[in-house]
Input
Amino acid sequence: MLRYLIINKTIQNLENNLLGVQFLRWRRKPRWLPVAKSKEFRIPERPKQSEEEKLELMRLHNQYRTQMRSVRSYLIKEWEANKQKTTSDHVYITPEEAEKEFQMRMQLNNEWNKTISIEREEKLRIELKAKEELIKNKLENAEYYIERKREQAREEVLEQIELAKTFITRENLEAKIEEILANPVNHNFCVDLEKNIHREMDKN
Output
């Protein structure tokens, strides 16, 4: 009865914590249950090995340890050889020689800096010249655009002045009326299929 209650309680807890998990039916005792009290203090009997099996295992263990010892010894010798080789490559120099080499490298560095400075100045000069040319072209284009706009405005003003001569003002109103009455214009006309224009005949 107690076992049944423990199993149900465990399953309920797992179902609450692990939603969507499908449980399988165990044929034997589930893993999450504790050891039975009747088997809690039982000491399992140690399996007995035959003499031949024991000798074979000893031989394999000795062979493994011998091989590993050989590999470690080889790696240690290789590391020591590389260490000695690396140490022998270093050349010890006196402080005077180090100062002399430092001054030589500083002189070489200064020469490189001068060369790079000259190249940089030449590059900046070329870029400045190109920028000046670009600004000059833009100014010329702007002046041409402004002059063109002025010319167009001047032409429009002259055209409007010429058109103003034909405007009807208070002074020439009577003369324009008499001119219109003397020269009537009939705008009624039609066009046939042959593109001939037929104007309306005067009723008078």
